[in-house]
UniProtKB/TrEMBL annotation:
It comes from Pichia kluyveri. Pathway: Purine metabolism; GMP biosynthesis; GMP from XMP (L-Gln route): step 1/1. Homodimer. CDD domains: GATase1_GMP_Synthase, GMP_synthase_C. Gene3D superfamilies: 3.30.300.10, 3.40.50.880, HUPs. This is GMP synthase [glutamine-hydrolyzing].
Length: 528
């Protein structure tokens, strides 16, 4: 790392493996696996022109994809990728692409192969398979190589795939028919490590400790000696880590704004103040805007309308408060901190089909257009688990680092139907009890997200010989790795009993408690 390079983006500072995405649902996993052994990797769409690459990779991986290389209009890699003179690994579609380029020996297989297979290593000397024995791999393909591509040899085979792995006889070009990036390929990570570390000679220096150092320098250089930055904080891990990083880089020239929309959890505002302001020393402005939000939500029951009103009111309040913050030198605020993470970037650049025009810019919503601010996104290269380790290094308390996600519209979408102050109070109190018990039973970190929703129906109950007619609380707790699919968490009966009894006894206005046992899909995590 030279002094000049240290102020550059990650792909110029760290040895980078480039993943060219052909649209596989597993492409992002390739990057995650590489980073697990501290090799930095980034993804770009397969349509990327090599002459326009923003960095020079130390190796290239061609991902899988849903197309067939022999189809008309199928996506193909820019042939200049081979002029980079770096090792290339093709995975599934990526390997078929290598075969197509070198002799067109790809066709439809007799049957689709999906699921586990056992790989038999034929060429023990191949560096890619160093330390890999005959173990289970994961297949997902219809097409197959009909012949060995020109200049290649067979490295491994399975019962159904005679060319489960191939390698060029002279150049460092390799192909795998199976998916080393999924955990069902038991030794897949060793293969990826062999490729990245032994073959590409990538430096294993991608650690959050190294990232902090280079990122702080980069922010300082980008913002310059006087400009100032604002950003919204929510009390969640991403915005807190972003804010603390800015504080480390430019001190009080970063202004954090926390908007209390009246739809936050119990004690939230007090906790945020304590942690960010007193604890982390972040220059924080707290705005109490609950009345404004609740006033606008009066009479509104449609979930989409509620979300829109909450989102727009947020922008409104944020802009108003931001306008009052004046940099010391009398100029205007120049930058807006945005907590974009790498999955958002992947989503916006991943290859979605030959006819689709690639959107390269992440949509950041209404804020920027109105405010004429330049965007600063210090977390844009990071996955969530990386943000968490970064947070730990930055001294952010564990409680906050491991916090469940909380939606922007907050309790506003957990009170079904009209959102009134009294309804918010019921949902908030019930939620507090639920989470308190989850923590007391040591279950918080096993659950990905948990909350209470208040249903707009009344139900009959009996309390002390008196008939009651009150509302229903629905508890939801889910387990998931990516929030794309989720399953409900299996609590002990005694736990649910205790929570139900506490909520009915301690929260006025609740006659009944239910537990949501629907997975996602078909249900969503939130109720609205
Ligand atoms: N579409 C190709 C096939 O069916 C590649 C599949 C993949 O990359 N997973 O073989």
């Amino acid at each position: 790392m030279s002094a000049i390079e240290e102020t550059a983006p990650a792909h110029q500072v760290f040895d980078t493996i480039l993943v060219l995405d052909f649209g596989s649902q597993y492409s992002h996993l390739i990057i995650r696996r590489l980073r697990e052994f501290n090799v930095y990797a980034e993804m770009l769409p397969c349509t990327q022109k090599i002459s326009e690459l923003p960095f020079k990779p130390v190796g290239v991986i061609l991902s899988g994809g849903p197309y067939s290389v022999y189809e008309e209009g199928a996506p193909h890699v820019d042939p200049a990728v081979f002029d980079l003179n770096v090792p290339v690994l093709g995975i599934c579609y990526g390997m078929q692409e290598l075969a197509w380029i070198n002799g067109k020996g790809v066709g439809r297989g007799l049957k689709r192969e999906y699921g586990p297979a056992v790989v038999n290593v034929v060429d023990e000397a191949c560096e890619l398979f160093k330390g890999v024995n005959n173990s289970q791999v994961w297949m997902s393909h219809n097409d197959k190589l009909t012949a060995l591509p020109n200049g290649f040899k067979t490295v491994a085979e399975t019962g159904n795939s005679p060319y489960a792995s191939i390698a060029h006889t002279e150049k460092p070009i390799f192909g795998l028919q199976f998916h080393p990036e999924v955990t069902h390929s038991l030794q897949g990570k060793i293969l990826l490590k062999n490729f990245a570390v032994s073959i590409c000679k990538a430096n294993q220096n991608w650690t959050m400790a190294n990232f902090i150092e280079t990122e702080i320098k980069r922010i300082r250089q980008l913002v310059g000696p006087t400009a100032e930055v604002i950003g919204a904080v929510s009390g969640g891990v991403d915005s807190t880590v972003g804010a603390k990083l800015m504080k480390e880089a430019i001190g009080d020239r970063f202004h954090a704004i926390y908007v209390d929309n009246g739809l936050m959890r119990k004690n939230e505002t007090v906790t945020v103040k304590k942690t960010l302001d007193e604890g982390l020393g972040i220059n924080l402005t707290v705005v109490e805007a609950g009345d404004e939000f609740l006033g606008k939500l009066k009479g509104i029951t449609d979930p989409e309308k509620k979300r829109k009103i909450i989102g727009n009111t947020f922008i409104h309040v944020f802009e108003r408060v931001a306008a009052e913050i004046k940099p010391k030198d009398g100029s205007d605020i120049e930058y807006l901190l945005q907590g974009t993470l790498y999955p958002d970037v992947i989503e916006s650049i991943s290859f979605k089909g030959p006819s689709q025009t690639i959107k390269t810019h992440h949509n950041v919503g209404g804020l920027l257009e109105d405010m004429k601010l330049k965007l600063i996104e210090p977390l844009r290269e990071l996955f969530k688990d990386e943000v968490r380790s970064l947070g730990k290094i930055l001294g952010i308390p564990d409680e906050l680092v491991w916090r469940h996600p909380f939606p922007g519209p907050g309790i506003g979408i957990r009170v079904l139907g009209e959102v009134t102050p009294s309804q918010v109070k019921i949902a908030r109190e019930a939620d507090y009890i639920f989470i308190e018990e989850i923590k007391a039973h040591g279950l918080y970190n096993q659950i990905s997200q948990a909350f209470a929703a208040l249903l707009p129906v009344k139900s009959v109950g009996v309390v002390g010989d008196q008939r009651t007619y009150e509302q229903v609380i629905a508890l939801r707790a889910i387990e998931t790795t990516d929030f794309m699919t989720a399953d409900w968490f299996v609590f002990e009966a005694a736990f649910l009993k205790k929570v139900a009894s506490r909520i009915v006894n301690e929260v006025d206005g609740v006659a009944r408690v239910t537990y949501d046992i629907t997975s996602k899909p078909p249900a969503t995590v939130e109720w609205e």
